[in-house]
Amino acid sequence: MSEQIATIYKRMKDLPSTHILGAGTPMCAGCGGLQALHEVYDILGEKTVFVNAAGCMTLLAVYPFTPFRGSWLYTSMSSAPAGAQGVRDALDILLAKGRIPPEEDLAVAVLTGDGSAYGMGLSATSGAIERGLDFLYLCYDNEGYGNTGQQTSPATPHGAKTATATGPAGFGGYKKDLFAIWAAHRPAYVATVIGTEPLDLARKIEKAKAMKGPRLIIALAPCPTGWDFDPQQTVEVGKLAVKTGIWPLKEYENGQVTHTKVPSQRVPVEEYLKKQGRFAHLFAPQRDEATLAEIQAQVDAYWAGMEGEQ
Amino acid sequence: MTRALITGNQAAAWGARLARAEYVPAFPITPQTEIIETLAKWIDHGAMDCRMVMLESEHSMITAAGAAAATGVRVFTATSSQGLMYAMEMLYSVPGMRAPLVLVNVSRGLQTPLTLEPDHNDVLAARDSGFLQIHCATCQEVLDQTLIAYRLAEHHKVRLPVLVNLDGFYLSFTREPVEIPEPAAVDRFLPGYDAETTRFHAGEPVSQGVAVLGSSPYSYFRYEDHLAALQGLPAYEAIAAEFAAQFGRDYAPVELYRSDDAEFALFMIGSFATKAKDAVDRMREAGWRVGLVRPRLLRPYPDAALRRALAGKRGVAVVDQNLSLGKGGILHSELASVLYGQPDAPPILASFIGGLGGRDIGPEEFFEMIRIVRQAAETGITPPPRLLFTENELREVRKMQAIAHVERKEAAK
Ligand SMILES: Cc1ncc(C[n+]2csc(CCOP(=O)(O)OP(=O)(O)O)c2C)c(N)n1
Ligand code: SF4
Ligand SMILES: [Mg+2]
After folding, report:
1. Which of A137, A171, A256, B37 is the Cys-Cys partner for A165 at CB 3.0 to 4.6 Å?
2. Which atom of ligand 1 lies closest to the CA of A226?
């Protein structure tokens, strides 16, 4: 990690103690995506305009109420980055012409789910990165089309049951590596985060906020509704995602990928899988040893590939 | 003011330049590309103070256009055909944001089969989107209507995006003499952009394009947008009158050509109306009392002006350069809806489909249409819709098929 930049978030008590995102949203109890958004928004601040794509979070701003202190623009499922382009360009024109003073400027942030980020909106994101758009992209990854009832998305992991993968083996495909796809564009910054590691998240958002250009963040978003676990388990599930190594916390900057939190002794992935109804068929009526081994092997292979990097 | 021989595409670009458009999200497509290339050249060489951004699709282009307009700058963009279809989701999204902008569409037929040549199915697919629609017949009109379109879009009681349409090839690539007004004169007609309350900035947070729950707020906003579109008619009339007073060119919502004393009328939009005018002159010479009625404004629909223009006519030939598959001509059914039940409505409203995929409509065909309408007026029986297609055209297609068959047989040997 580039430790040159001094973080103000050294320990948990340095984190903002009050949230600026209002309460009473229609999101499910225990929504890991909302948790991450709270933490991100606290650091970005209210001088942010969120440009949203269709998904669970679209229902945050429902006429005539919004939990945001700042601005909001809903676009479509596929074109939130293009909306960010229009807003950023227009703000730049207004600033250049002196039609708004610098203090009236806004940070432009895209907010989408995985379905949009990994799939339908990928072309618009690729375009925005390639144009060097000065924006922050926050993808909350609940590994499915959550808003429509958790169908399989391009972010659904191997073996998970979804509303469209209901067979005995669950989803047969594999989760797309969006981090690598984004990083291949050589943007200013890419990071993975999770709401249950708020210090790591805060440092990354703090760093991204201070940068210019495309900055892209994927937050794994434990989703009690779509993953089928008790809402009070969100923190536990999130922590296990990191401890098992299934959700590596990392960042990309200047052509380098760095892991920001390496689990010293990785917990077996089944501890994470076991907690979620979408993987229940891997454990009962019989253990699906082959699939469990395959998932574990993939995680092991990932970290084996990372050895020496630290 | 200068006079220049320019294409319809260049006229559209001049419109954007004189309107001092500040932001142009762009994407190429034939036959529109010349518009954005012309603007790009001006911007690159300092003749135009504007920011152009190449998006990766028209869907994104309209998203960026709406977002920038909602942030508070004057936006211009252009597309055609498949591009307009690709953007369709956002064409329906932007009007509800009440973010004014101008989109020039260069009409081109839609696949399948794939074609580069013009007809009006593309622009009519956007008919119900909330973009107001102005249809042009000459290159001069393209330039002038682009300026009028900004006034209309930004009118306090309207605040909706406006689409200005010109026909691919027949206007886009045809050079006509065009008067290019002095920038200072245009500035008097069209002052700088006033975003009113539609803008993003830190001091005054807003939420745009938000969801509603339940039908009441949904209906409320849809009705609001519809009423705003209807406000576009008196607004357009006033703006066009102002334009006429200042520049001497009249763009009433409906163009009437020799129709006052006509017994029969041709009804159509776009550049082929120029051909129809010529046919009207010839029919007049032959002693037929024929006129032309051409709506410039399709959204809002100029109901009253059309009723007035057609009151007392014995018959109307509606020429649709579009085809609603399984129904017929779109202009025909729209016109019928405003004439039905009116005391002086023409008893015969005959439907003709032609000009698809760039097909010409010859003078003899205008004669034939009016001959059919005259006959129908005698018998009182409305003729069935006609799809214009000659034996020669059929022979041409048969020939292609025959050649392909022979080639296939040869290849199989
Ligand atoms: C063009 C289009 N297709 C389909 C939909 C329906 N739709 C709304 S939200 C959604 C799922 C989005 O998934 P994701 O981006 O993962 O966000 P999540 O719902 O999980 O928050 C879908 C398919 C839509 N709104 N627009
Ligand atoms: S479905 Fe999942 S992601 Fe969507 S609001 Fe509920 S918990 Fe959050
Ligand atoms: Mg999702």
Report:
1. A171
2. 20
A156 CB less than 6 Å from ligand 1?
no
Q: Which residues pair with A73 in a beta bridge?
A: A51, B208
Q: How far is CA B294 from the centre of its chain?
A: 12
Tens of pLDDT, residue by residue over A254-310, are: 999 999 999 999 999 999 999 999 999 999 999 999 999 999 999 999 999 987 564
Q: What is the mean pLDDT of residues A34-49?
A: 98
Q: Which atom of ligand 1 is nearest to the CA of A57?
A: 21
In 3D space, the residue among A226, A151, A140 whose CA is nearest the CA of residue A178 turns out to be A140
How far from the centroid of its chain's Cα atoms is residue A300's Cα? 22
Contact B57 A73 (CB under 8 A): no
Task: Give whole-number Cα distances, B311 to A303, B143, B253, B265, in Å.
Answer: 81, 32, 17, 11
Ligand 1 site, residue A142, Cβ cutoff 6 A? yes
> What's the pLDDT band for A1 if we cut at 50, 70, 90?
very low
CA of B280, closest CA in chain A: separation in Å?
47
How large is the average pLDDT for residues B174-185?
A: 98
Range of the domain at A60: 12-306
The reported pLDDT for the residue numbered B13 is 98
Of the residues A76, A108, A123, A129, the best mutation for testing chain B's interface (the one with the most B CB atoms within 10 Å of its CB) is A76
Beginning with the edge strand found earlier in the chain, give each strand of the sheet holding B254-257 in spatial order.
B254-257, B290-295, B264-267, B315-320, B348-353, B386-387
CATH number for B254-392 (one of 3.90.1140.10, 3.40.1110.10, 3.50.50.60, 3.40.50.920): it is 3.40.50.920
Q: What is the mean pLDDT of chain B?
A: 98
Residue A250 has pLDDT above 90, yes or no: yes
**Quick check: A82 and B71 CB within 8 A?**
no
What are the residues whose beta carbons fall under 8 Å from the beta carbon of B39, sequence distance 6 or more? B13, B16, B17, B24, B26, B48, B50, B52, B76
Q: How would you label A139-160 residue by residue, b for 16+ Cβ within 10 Å and e otherwise?
A: bbbbbbbbbeebbbbbbbbebb
Answer whether residue A302 is part of any domain.
yes
Give the orientation angle of helix B272-285 with respect to helix B363-379, to 10 degrees.
60
Whether residues A76 and B202 touch (CB distance < 8 A) is answered with no
Structure tokens at A292: 């469990």
In a domain, A1, yes or no: no
Does A43 reside within a domain?
Answer: yes
Could you tell me the fold of the domain covering B2-247? Rossmann fold (3.40.50)
Q: Are B94 and B101 in contact (CB under 8 A)?
A: yes
Instruction: Give the pair of three-digit tokens for residue B6.
Output: 């320019």
Q: Please give all residues whose CB falls under 5 A of ion ligand 3, grouped by chain where several chains appear.
A: A 113-115, 142, 146
CATH code (residue A45)? 3.40.50.970
A5 is a domain residue: no
Average pLDDT, chain A: 96
CB contact at 8 A, B168 and B118: yes
Domain boundaries, chain B: 2-247, 254-392
